[in-house]
From TrEMBL:
GO terms for cellular component: endoplasmic reticulum. This is Thioredoxin domain-containing protein. Residues 34-172 form the Thioredoxin domain. GO terms for molecular function: protein disulfide isomerase activity. Residues 216-233 have a biased composition (Basic and acidic residues). The lineage of its organism: Eukaryota, Sar, Stramenopiles, Ochrophyta, Bacillariophyta. Pfam families: Thioredoxin (PF00085). CDD domains: PDI_a_family. PROSITE patterns: THIOREDOXIN_1, THIOREDOXIN_2. One of its GO terms (biological process) is protein folding.
Amino acid sequence: SASDSNPPGRGSKGKVRLDESMMHGPRLILLSGVLASTGAYTYEAPGRDPVSIDNVRNSEEAVRLTADNFDDAVDGKLVFVKMYSPYCPHCREMAGAWNDLARHYAGRDDVLIGSVDCTDSPGGKRLCGRHRVMGLPHVLYGDGNHGGIFLEEYGGDKDFGSLRSWADEKLVPTCNPGRLDACTDEERVLVETFVAMSRSELAAAARALEGEEEDARGRFDESHRAMQRDHDAGLTEKEIKIAKAERSIRLIREVMATKQ
């Protein structure tokens, strides 16, 4: 099978998987599915030269983030954060590209390129646990307001060109409860409406919108089969309805996150 072809501890897309079968590496301790071990990100044998590990850590040119400085550092910033371990082979492979990215954005006050050492106890480890990191490298991007609750996982290639292209496109202000200045008038009204609602009301509204989104997809499929000649017009109507529903659902979930 595909899983059998991966060596122990290897995941897909160049990640080191957290796997208790890695018997020759540091022991893993998972608490409620959240990382709680200082050395769970490697299948290498213990006893690696501490000096070489320190050299890996010290070579990081991005802003070093821990649980102690993360919230203040990312507040108001557009963020691209790499969560890594100096023991992790895939992390070391992307280290040069990440340093290039940090240098590329060094002059931007509104953008933060950061690095979190998930084996650094206690600050880095605690921060990786907070973000439920289950494999490395783990890269997040987005708006840093509200302690990074709006950050999303980056799943693309990890060479400098891919990272820079993604950042240039995605690290732009987007409407959310912590950045109303990026909202259109319509979006601002939506956010203010959602903020005034309770979590149970928000959950019900999200379910209703998800139903509307599904109905829009179903209606389009039916009309498309019956009226192929109206395909383009139907497609446009479908995309508009789905986009509006998805935007509202995203804003609802972001508002709910601020109410936790």
